[in-house]
Write a structure and sequence with these properties.
By secondary structure, this protein is mainly α. The chain contains eight helices and no strands.
Length: 224
């Protein structure tokens, strides 16, 4: 299944960048949010770590919606979803491939979001960049697992973007809370051991929704 998933991810990434589009909308929206929030501060005023990290994850949450809307749009063009369902490809491999492609695109977006947060919001990660990277990867994984499952629910729906937004944001709350709390703790000098409960929450979320996606995705994508 891994080989099939990598083929799907490669296909989606190639299509995403074929016309120079990629995650441009998600990047621009995130940068716009960071800039707009930066205008809410008084001259010389610094954002607290909690405010800055929350804005970073807010940009990422909106980015997930745009990214998976783009990825599942590929299957609606020329009815390629039917061809995939009739192919020998395991249907779970399609979900895993979408998740992998979404993870790459979200990470690319955050390459722009993080420096923008440092510059416009005055964040100071200190010496915790390695731990911050572990936190970001853990939360991103959950966001993309969820995006891959919920994105399939809107597949073939006329109002799929609205459906994706309504469903995915409430489900993201535990992940976003974990990401905010861990990020704030690391910026304030706490170590990973002291934030173990929040990491446990994030990893448990990843595991539960990965299992749910493997079971539910075939039924959801087929519209059963």
């Amino acid at each position: 299944m891994i080989g099939h998933a990598m083929a799907v991810a490669h296909k989606d990434l190639r299509l995403a960048f074929a016309h120079g589009q990629g995650p441009v909308q998600a990047i621009l929206l995130g940068l716009l949010l960071v800039f707009m929030f930066s205008l809410s501060a008084q001259p010389g005023e610094r954002f607290t770590p909690q405010q800055g990290v929350a804005i970073f994850w807010l940009c990422s949450a909106f980015g997930v919606v745009l990214i998976f809307s783009l990825l599942f749009r590929f299957e609606e063009e020329n009815d390629t979803a039917t061809a995939l369902l009739l192919s020998p490809l395991p249907i779970q491999g399609l979900w895993l491939g979408k998740t992998m492609a979404g993870f790459v695109l979200l990470a690319l977006c955050q390459v722009f979001f993080f420096p923008a947060a440092l510059v416009f919001l005055g964040l100071d990660p200190g010496g915790s960049l390695g731990s911050m990277l572990v936190m970001v990867v853990s939360v991103d994984l959950g966001l993309c697992i969820l995006g891959g499952l919920v994105g399939a629910m809107g597949h073939g729906q006329g109002a799929k973007d609205a459906l994706l937004t309504i469903i995915v944001f409430p489900l993201q709350i535990p992940l976003l809370l974990g990401g905010i709390r861990i990020g704030v703790g690391l910026m304030q000098g706490e170590d990973l051991a002291g934030l173990g409960d929040w990491f446990g929450l994030v990893l448990a979320f990843d595991a539960v929704f990965a299992g749910a996606a493997l079971f539910l995705f075939p039924h959801v994508f087929r519209g059963e």
